[in-house]
Amino acid sequence: MAEPKILKRYYYRWWYRGFYVFTSIILLFPLWYIYLNIDDKYLFNPSLWGKLFLYFISGFGIFWGYLTSKEYDNKSFLGMDQIKRFFKDKVHIHTDNTFFKTDGVLGIMRHPYYFAGLLILWGRTLKIKDLIINIIFTFYFIFGALNEERKLIELYGEKYTEYKRKVPMLFPNLRTIFHKIKNN
Question: Among candidates 29, 153, 12, 180, which has minimal Cα distance to 85?
């Protein structure tokens, strides 16, 4: 978990976000190797209708991820904006100049990318190795969301704390969704 001192010391450096993304991708390779070498027996192999339902869930996760990508500055999210600003303008410290956004998918849940990832992960038939990987990634998403929460509270203070009280973290409140649909 990111401590406020560490955040202030490293998080806003021009290289941090790109380094984090690069390291995360590199660390997927050992996980992929382990995945390929785990037993391949089905743990859960539903009927055709069950598979169609799971594909719908996974497809909705992909759609939700697409909707979410429209709500974020993805160049900054991936660290590309910070690296570009360093080489172009010699900016060493990245200031998080993004405004606090609570509409769209962010008005339905606080971590929509993680929600999309969970739908994609769990919306498929499960082999033993899939279950292991799904559990690992589910914990990663939960701890990642909690880590981001700490950073966002540090960054936005009471504004984010109030947002936390109103909007669920990972799973949407169906009543809120139906209310938004009804009012639009």
Answer: 12
Please, are residues 153 and 161 in contact by the beta-carbon 8 Å criterion? Answer: yes
| C-alpha angle 29-9-93 in degrees, rounded to nearest 5 | 90
Percent of the chain topping pLDDT 70: 74
How far apart, in whole angstroms, are the C-alpha atoms of residue 78 and residue 127?
31
Enumerate the H helices of the chain as residue ranges: 4-6, 16-36, 48-69, 74-77, 80-89, 112-122, 128-156, 158-166, 174-183
Predicted model pTM: 0.76
CA-closest candidate to residue 116, choices 163, 63, 184, 51: 63
CA atoms of 68 and 50, how far apart (whole Å): 27
> For residue range 112-156, what is the model confidence (pLDDT) as tens digits?
999 999 999 999 999 989 998 999 999 999 998 998 899 889 888
Report how far residue 83's alpha carbon sits from residue 89's, in angstroms, rounded to the nearest whole number: 10
